[in-house]
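anyone seen this seq b4? input:
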Amino acid sequence: MSALWGPAAVTVAGAALFFLVLPGRFDTSLSELNLMAATTGTKLLGLSVTPGLLAVVTLLQAVTWGPFFNTLFAVGEETGWRGYMTPFLCEKLGHKWGLVVSGAIWGAWHWPLICLTGYNFGTGYFGAPFTGALMMCVACAALGTLLAFFYDKTQSIWAPALCHGAVNAVGGLGILFLPLGTTSFILGPSPFGLLAGIPLFALAAWVLFGKKKTE
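predicted toks r here
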């Protein structure tokens, strides 16, 4: 259950922290959701389309069927990263360094997308796209640590694949509450941002350093 709903809890906590620290970034007019409502049509599930309804429906799909659907695409990636590369590097470098280095390599895998399309972090931030590329390595090292934890506990690739799918389902929800035209996401509100990612980073640090290892 933690692999399924843990990402939602971390994402919501990170987005809440982001908007508490930067309240001016919260769009009280819900312009993004209003635009979605205008392009969806007049009815959704038999109800009049409103920003509030879209927010509820988006959240529900992100914590119900969305993670399972995304798992079908994540399982191949997890087979390579957590099923093969992470155990290999842990054996060569030691458990902690293996987790960190494998996560950083996973983050570097996304560099072409970050540099060419602004993937995850947009384009309007200091040092773009290089700071975004670095941030991706940090975030993937943290997330990869948690995914490896699920793999170690279950000895099944499906657990990290489900968690990976859940992250993909919920990670962008906070962006719906930013003003239209926002170009910088380096601080958040996705859990890969420097500020919104604090709950993710703290949880990964606990797994790496604070959790008592049991034989």
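The longest helix spans residues 65-93. DSSP finds nine helices and two strands in the chain. kinda curious what u guys think
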